[in-house]
Design a protein that fits this description.
By secondary structure, the chain is α+β, with helices and mostly antiparallel strands. The chain has five helices and eight strands. The strands form two sheets. Strands 1-2-8-3 form a four-stranded antiparallel sheet, covered by helices on one side. The chain has a four-stranded antiparallel sheet with strand order 4-6-7-5, with no helix packed on it.
């Protein structure tokens, strides 16, 4: 075969190869775009469905939140109404209790007064009756208990004697008691002896007026409330003693002692019980 024939054959073979490659490329290029468009279409559809599901989920959650919020608001409103009703009932109950307590208190006071009066009547017949609100051998008068000691003592010793009995020297503070038929004054006069110490504070100087009427000094603020150990040079001071009049003399003089303390409340059961 000649060289020209070989060259021509090679050229024809190359040309046919190029044509075949070009056709294959054209076929591949034409088929690729439809495949890519199909994938994007599927992805778009999936995203659209996902968005719809999210919107539906948000709607459901919103509905649930709204219903729950509405229910909780209704419950809260009911609780608030219940609280107001409860507070109103409590207030009414408290008012009722206060009114009942006041009535009970008034009844208790009335009962105590009647009990005391009844006990006093029994006491007049039986001085040591069990209902007596004072210790044995003490004198009951008004709302106080009294006891007398016949021995002569200085003012300081008399004060200490009363302290031992959880009492104080006689203090007549209520002027109205004296003026109301002079009951307290008559009681003081009725004691078995005269010239006894009073619980007035000692004074370093003698009172200018030698004596005063008893009811003229009742309002005095000088009633002694301290301890005799706190008094300096009490032996050089002047103390008050009384008969029908008030006198001041040396605290070292010997006088009688009258002690006073508050009476205990009269107990109802002490009257109801027959034992004396």
């Amino acid at each position: 075969m000649s060289e020209e024939q070989v060259t021509y054959a090679e050229l024809n073979f190359q040309d046919s190869s190029q044509i075949q490659n070009t056709q294959e490329f054209d076929q591949v290029g034409l088929k690729a775009p439809p495949a890519a468009s199909h994938v994007w279409r599927q992805r778009t559809l999936a995203l659209t469905l996902l968005c719809l599901l999210l919107l539906i989920g948000l709607g459901v959650l919103g509905s649930m939140f709204y219903l729950t919020s509405k229910t909780e608001k209704e419950k809260l409103k009911k609780l608030q109404n219940f609280k107001k009703e409860l507070q109103r009932n409590v207030s009414l109950q408290l008012m009722y209790n206060v009114d009942s307590f006041e009535k009970i208190r008034n009844l208790s006071i009335t009962l105590q007064e009647l009990t005391t009066k009844l006990c006093y009547e029994l006491h007049k017949r039986e001085p040591e009756h069990k209902c007596k609100p004072c210790p044995k051998e003490w004198i009951w008068h008004g709302d106080s208990c009294y006891i007398t000691f016949n021995n002569y003592s200085t003012w300081q010793m008399s004060h200490m004697t009363c302290s031992v009995h959880n009492a104080s020297l006689l203090k007549i503070k209520n002027k109205s008691v004296l003026r109301e038929r002079q009951k307290h004054k008559e009681f003081v006069k009725s004691l078995s002896f005269n010239y006894f110490w009073l619980g007035l504070s000692p004074t370093p100087t003698i009172i200018n007026q030698r004596y005063k009427k008893l009811d003229e000094t009742i309002i005095s603020s000088d009633w002694f409330t301290g301890n005799t150990n706190d008094l300096n040079d009490i032996d050089r001071m002047y103390c008050a003693h009384v008969n029908s009049y008030l006198y001041y003399g040396s605290c070292t003089e010997g006088k009688h002692t009258v002690c006073e303390k508050l009476a205990n409340p009269v107990k109802t059961e002490s009257i109801l019980m027959s034992e004396k």
